[in-house]
Structures are given as C-alpha cells and as structure tokens.
Amino acid sequence: MAQQVKNTSNMSTRSSKRKNNNNGFSRKCSSLIKEQRLRRCATMLLCWYIQAMIKFQL
After folding, report:
1. Burial classification of residue 5, based on how many CB atoms lie within 10 Å of its CB (0-12 exposed, 13-18 middle, 19 or more buried)
2. How many whole angstroms separate alpha carbon 6 and alpha carbon 1?
3. Is the four-CA dihedral 12, 17, 20, 25 of positive or negative sign?
4. Looking at residue 31, what is its pLDDT?
5. pLDDT of residue 6 exceeding 70
6. How far apart are CA 35 and CA 57, in angstroms?
7. Tens digit of pLDDT for each residue in 18-57?
8. Averaged over 1-12, what is the pLDDT?
9. pLDDT the model gives residue 34
10. DSSP assignment, residue 58?
11. 3-class DSSP string for 1-58
12. Predicted local confidence at residue 56, as pLDDT
C-alpha cells in the first residue's frame, strides 16, 4: 500500500516536471513570436519612412 502511494507521488512529480518544461517551451516560443512581430513592424515602419522621403524629394 505504501509503495503505491510512493509511485503515485513520483508520477505526479514527473507530470509536473513535464508541465514546467512545456510551459518553459511555450514561454520561449511566445517571446520569439513577439520579437519577430516587433522586427516586422519596425521594418515596415522604416520602409514607409524611406518611401515617404523618396516621394518628397522628387
């Protein structure tokens, strides 16, 4: 009986470790996505600025 309780507690710690690993992966993935969006946005703004400067110079 005591062995079953130990096995159950080991399984719950394993599953919580997996959840933490998945959570860490999700955080890394979401932070990379946010960074990529910011880069894309900055690039777009820069392109618009350059196009506007070219139009006004002509």
Report:
1. exposed
2. 9
3. negative
4. 95
5. no
6. 33
7. 556 678 889 999 999 999 999 999 999 999 999 999 998 8
8. 55
9. 96
10. -
11. CHHHHHHHHHHHHHHHHHHHHHHHHHHHHHHHHHHHHHHHHHHHHHHHHHHHHHHHHC
12. 86
- Alpha-carbon distance of 1 to 42, in angstroms, equals 62
Kindly provide the residue ranges of all beta strands, DSSP E only, lying in the chain, ordered along the sequence.
none
Q: Over the range 28-46, which residues count as b (16 or more CB within 10 Å of their CB) and which as e?
A: eeeeeeeeeeeeeeeeeee
Task: Record the tokens describing residue 40, joined without a space.
Answer: 């894309």
Whole-angstrom distance, CA of residue 17 vs CA of residue 47: 45
